[in-house]
Automatic annotation (TrEMBL):
Keywords: Membrane, Transmembrane, Transmembrane helix. The chain crosses the membrane at residues 42-61, 91-121, 127-149. It holds the Pfam family TctB. InterPro entries: DUF1468. It comes from Ancylobacter dichloromethanicus. This is DUF1468 domain-containing protein. Residues 17-157 form the DUF1468 domain.
């Protein structure tokens, strides 16, 4: 599977255009005009949303203009190059899935457990470290983060049911 750079540029322009349109729509609920006391609350966000929409449209036009000559080579034409191929896509997924799993686990079991499992997994499975080294590093990272956030900064992080069972609130 190969995704072209043109496809990704167009998809990015469409997504950012959608964000701009959403900002514009949300701004209209707060008023985008000029009232008796000055600009209404949605005035500035509406302008920013319009700029995002304009930039997205410009990117979309530029993308199709730039790659239009790829079918009819001439001066200034750019050949379509791959954005990502199958091998790189597999590496990207192998990197992204554990992070998404850590996020889900952290919501369910707490940040410290999710962090420890993520560190252990990436060191043991992805990097190929020994099990004992991976486990020791994961426990050390948990302990350091616990001391820094809970004791020094006094910022309680999400603990989850396992740490609560051991009386760590």
């Amino acid at each position: 599977m190969e995704i072209s750079r043109k496809t990704m540029e167009a998809a990015t322009a469409v997504v950012t255009g959608g964000v701009g349109a959403l900002i514009c729509y949300g701004s209209t609920e707060n008023g985008i005009g000029w009232g008796a006391g000055g600009p209404e609350p949605g005035y500035f966000p509406f302008g920013i949303g319009c700029l995002i929409l304009l930039g997205s449209l410009a990117t979309l036009v530029q993308t199709f203009w730039k790659y239009a000559g790829a079918r009819h080579p001439g001066p200034g034409a750019v050949a379509e190059e791959p954005f990502i191929d199958g091998t790189r896509l597999r590496l990207l997924v192998a990197f992204a899935l554990p992070i998404m799993a850590m996020t889900a686990i952290s919501v369910w079991l707490g940040l410290y457990i999710g962090m420890g499992l993520y560190i252990f997994y990436t060191m043991r499975v992805s990097a190929g470290f020994r099990t004992l080294s991976s486990l020791a590093t994961a426990l050390l990272v948990i302990a350091i983060n616990f001391v820094v956030f809970e004791k020094l900064f006094m910022v309680p992080l999400l603990k989850g049911p396992i740490l609560e069972y051991f009386g760590i609130y």
